[in-house]
Design goal:
alpha/beta; about 15% strand
Length: about 550
């Protein structure tokens, strides 16, 4: 929790205790709905102990954690029964201090005081404190007037802007389902302050989410081109590997950078367009020399420009490094403009119109972001790993149909599964590490000489990712033991310093590529290695939870 905020509560403990005692809890009306009778409940940020007292009176076995020493002391003085029930502690490291799990967690008026960069760790911490099927009752201000540009109120307390839909997605990505939500006025009667209370339950298994609107577009929309399939595939890719690029808007919708979608389209359609025989149509009626996909001529010129230097593999490396030749840069810009036009005039306008789903996409005034509903984005984030497989199969079947069955679905699948080869990216990382005067195995700390391997932190089989931040040096025996497993959360934290030292070397040797790739992971400029680490660790945990992947600790 923010230190300056804790200091305010310490310095004003007496006045605040009196204020809280004079008002209703605000969340106690939901205790009976949230927690089964007799449950063990942990109140995180319990303050004066008011809610713990209510829980105890209602026959719950309640405990608390509070970072403010002043509030803890007053809580013990006013309610001696709390002396052995309240401990010092705060998010996001509480689960390390409290080595047990609870039937329920109450977290009221706390989450807004946690810095944005620590909210994932805080949510992950809460998850670790819950038993399977445990309940979380979370309350925070939906609207809070009087917050300065620095994110603090007039007393200096930190107030991170929280959009309920974004908070909901954060916890859902960690395996908690929202089962209730209430929006209420402030219990102290302060004007302009509204509170959102959410009730979650920790899933004991990974239930798939309903995706009726997505299915409506994919299954019942008119199928005249492969564009809608390509668009959803790109959104799944971004949701699974670049979700920080999503911009949550106050109305609960989400904006996705158009350039990210466009670059993925180039990589998807490249293998379909790069050879003359067989000609693979992507819209009905398309044939060589006649009606063609609007962006095919420009993309084919771009393909030709890389024909002698390595094709798609070379294009992907050049895109990452930003080292296009003047002619290639011109072709790239023209292709991107044409693709942006096709996206806006095609699937972004028409997806859903011919089915009961209704239109589901829009774009901002500048045309730089695609806009979609928060619910759709949530589904893609939570279920995108299997939606992608269905999309590729449907794309291959539609292409075969468009071709009049002259091309088989298997021929198309082979091309749709083509991704840039990892060899070139790995060799660049290897060369950088090889030239270091000294280096160590990132996982064991053992010194390395010339014999070492480059490990993918997030396995290539899961993420298809060869960004430099994902490529770290490891001893051969260690790398083979790790295999395709995901490193444990504790191992990542333990080896953070070694990982950052590797990244510093990579950045020094290839600053443009490293910064571009880190920015696409974090959506943050300028480069912040600590933030990059937090985003990588978050990606590991989400992948492990959603995919049920095996963990590894050296």
């Amino acid at each position: 929790m923010d230190d300056r905020t804790v200091r305010y509560y310490d310095e004003n403990a007496g006045r605040l205790c009196a204020l809280y005692a004079s008002a209703q809890s605000g969340v106690d009306r939901y205790f009976a709905a949230a927690f089964p009778p007799g449950s063990e409940i942990l109140d995180i940020g319990c303050g004066s102990g008011r809610d713990i007292g209510i829980l105890l009176k209602e026959r719950y076995d309640a405990y608390g954690a509070e970072p403010s020493a002043g509030l803890r002391a007053l809580a013990a003085d006013r309610s001696p029964e709390l002396i052995d029930r309240v401990c010092a502690g705060a998010l996001p490291d509480l689960s390390r201090q409290i080595d047990r799990k609870f039937d329920g967690v109450l977290c009221s008026a706390v989450f807004q005081h946690i810095p944005a960069g620590q909210q994932f760790d805080a949510a992950f911490d809460i998850r670790n404190l819950l038993k399977p099927n445990g309940r979380l009752l979370l309350s925070f201000p939906k609207e809070r007037p009087g917050i300065e540009a620095t994110g603090r109120d007039e007393q200096g307390r930190l107030y991170t802007n929280l959009i309920p839909e974004e908070v909901e997605l954060l916890f859902e990505r960690l395996g908690l389902d929202r089962i209730g939500r209430w929006d209420d006025p402030d219990s102290l009667g302060r004007p302009g302050i509204l509170w959102t209370t959410m009730l979650f339950t920790l899933r004991s298994d990974q239930m798939l989410r309903p995706i009726d609107r997505i299915e409506g577009v994919l299954n019942r929309d008119r199928k005249t081109a492969t564009y809608k399939l390509a668009l959803f595939r790109a959104l799944c890719d971004i949701a699974l590997t670049r979700h920080h690029l999503a911009q949550w808007r106050p109305d609960g919708t989400v904006g996705i950078p158009m350039q990210e979608i466009i670059e993925r389209w180039i990589c998807y359609y490249w293998p379909l367009f790069e050879v003359d025989e067989p000609f693979i149509p992507q819209i009905r009626g398309e044939s060589p020399g006649r009606k063609t996909v609007a962006f095919r001529p420009l993309l084919e010129q771009l393909i030709v420009s890389f024909g002698r230097s390595g094709g798609l593999d070379a294009f992907a490396a050049t895109l990452g490094n930003g080292t296009f030749s003047p002619n290639q840069q011109t072709l790239m810009e023209r292709t991107c403009r044409k693709l942006a036009h096709v996206l806006r005039e095609g699937p972004m306008t028409h997806a859903g119109l011919s089915s009961r789903a209704g239109r589901i996409f829009d774009y901002d005034g500048a045309g730089r972001r695609l806009i979609l509903g928060g619910g759709i984005w949530r589904e893609l984030c939570l279920s995108g790993h299997w939606i992608q497989d269905a999309l590729i199969l449907r794309w291959s079947e539609l292409t075969s149909e468009i071709s009049g069955k002259t091309i088989s679905p298997s021929q198309v699948i082979d091309r749709l599964l083509r991704i840039p080869s990892p060899r070139r990216s790995i060799e660049e990382a290897r060369r950088i590490y090889l030239n270091l005067p000294s280096k160590e195995c990132v996982w064991s700390g053992a010194p390395l000489q010339r014999a070492f391997e480059v490990d993918h932190v997030l396995p290539f089989s899961l993420w298809r990712n060869n960004d430099l931040w994902n490529l770290l040096p490891a001893a051969r025996s260690v790398n083979r033991d790790k295999g395709d497993k995901l490193p444990s959360h504790s191992l990542l934290k333990k080896r953070k310093g070694a990982i950052l030292r590797c990244w510093e070397a990579l950045h020094a040797a290839s600053p443009g590529r490293f910064e571009n790739e880190a920015m696409r992971l974090t959506s943050w400029r300028p480069l912040d290695l600590s933030r990059t680490f937090d985003c990588m660790a978050e990606a590991v945990e989400i992948t492990a939870i959603q995919r049920g992947w095996e963990r590894w600790s050296h």
